[in-house]
Amino acid sequence: MDRMKRRKYLTNKPVQLRYMGYVAIPLVVLLAALYYLIYYSVFMEMLIPEAVAATLLPAMKKVNIVLLVALPIVLFILLRKALIKSHRIYGPIPRIERDIEKVLSGDYSVRIKARDNDDLREFIGKINLLVEKIEGPKS
Amino acid sequence: MNKRLKIILIIICSVICMGAIAYSATVTLREFTFDEPNALTKWNKMVLNGPVEYKLLVAGDNGFVGALSEKTCSAMYYRLGFKLKDYPILSWKWRVNRFPDKSAAMTEKERDDYAARVYVIFPFLSFSSSKFIEYVWDKDLPEGTVMDSPEGSNVKIIIVRSGPGDQDEWVSEKRNVYEDYVDAFGSEPRWKVGAIAIMCDADSTGSVAESKFDEITIASQI
User: Fold this and answer.
1) Cα B150 from Cα B141, distance rounded (Å)
2) Which of A88, B89, B168, B216 has the fewest CB atoms within 10 Å distance of its CB?
3) Cross-chain Cβ contact A46/B194 below 8 Å
């Protein structure tokens, strides 16, 4: 199969955004829960306001600064990964639909192209095989 | 008056008397006499800036907690869980042997050293949403002073005892914490009391402080 370069990653906007949400939202929720759990546990261990103000709050301030810088970067990387991963599934679908339309209108010479990393590569290969069989032996 | 009526009247009077006795009786939730040798085992130590020496001392039959801070700051706290409205009375005995030297203290933070404090802690979700009341014995500040701690407006310092006092005489305190809370914060407590604590510190001034605590009691009413 020919090598094709990905140009547009967001081919199925609602589905892919949902997919990215499935990755990002639980991660952010988990991180927030973990952050709070650590903060609350330490706070409940300290309890004395002078101790909390002298040690826990400055420490949390540092953690907050790190999170403020690191979290957007981590989220960006994760969302980008999620977008690329989701595109490996949803990217070829419009092309498959378009080419099947052509086959349905009688053009059996059509072969659907797939990229090396597409998750539906094998499936596309099977469709191409089916079309080839329908087309019959070439004269 | 016939016999049956007499009996009914006696029963009614008895019920009213018993109700009145029950209503006026003080129910003690917790009493820390520090007479047992292991009296401090359930108290947690929180070291802030070097350990303060908290130890059980005995004078005759009476046990108590002695606290000695040498440029250090740490507290002892005891976890509880009760509604302040049900047990609003906190009483204790204390005496101060040495006050921290605040003569060179310039800032509010540096002046935040007290030989004896008793805390009532209302933890909830986070530090800023929690409330704290500190009952303090200070040498200089006038009794009845209510002020914000340098740690924030959710930490109220109430000066309950002022002046040097007698080093050998126990001084008894009895506070209605519920009323103090309402006066200090301007609203009723929304959270349960999560802990009480005692502290002696002299780290900010770099001096020495020494105090004693005894008979800390939490009760329903006076």
Assistant:
1) 15
2) B168
3) no
CATH number where B162 lies: 2.60.120.200
| Average pLDDT value for chain B | 89
**pLDDT 10s digits, A51-108:** 999 899 999 999 999 999 999 999 899 888 888 888 888 888 888 999 999 999 999 8
Q: What residue has token string 């600064």? A: A65
The mean pLDDT of B51-80, rounded to a whole number, is 93
Question: For a pLDDT cut of 70, what percent of chain B falls above it?
Answer: 94
Range of the domain at B103: 27-219
**Per-position b or e across B114-148, b if 16+ CB within 10 A of its CB:** bbbbbbbbbbeeebeebbbbbbbbbbebeeeeebe
Q: Is residue B8 part of a domain?
A: no
Q: Residue A54 gets which letter from DSSP?
A: I
How many domains, in total, are found in chain B?
1
How many angstroms separate the CA of residue A86 from the nearest CA in chain B? 38
Do A40 and B119 count as a contact with CB atoms less than 8 A apart?
A: no
Map residue B19 onto helix, strand or coil.
helix
The predicted-structure confidence for B26-55, as pLDDT tens digits, reads as follows 799 989 999 988 899 999 999 988 999 999
Pairing relationship of beta strands B152-162 and B126-138 according to DSSP bridges: parallel
**At B19, is the pLDDT very low, low, confident or very high (cuts 50, 70, 90)?**
low
Domain boundaries, chain A: 12-88, 91-139
Is residue B155 situated within a structural domain? yes
Please answer yes or no on whether B194 and A57 come within 8 Å at the CB atom: no
A75 to chain B, minimum CA–CA distance in Å?
26
Q: Cβ contacts of residue A122 below 8 Å, gap of 6+?
A: none
Chain B hits for A50, CB-CB cut-off 8 Å, are 48, 73, 75, 112, 149, 151, 199, 201
Give me B43's structure tokens.
């108290």
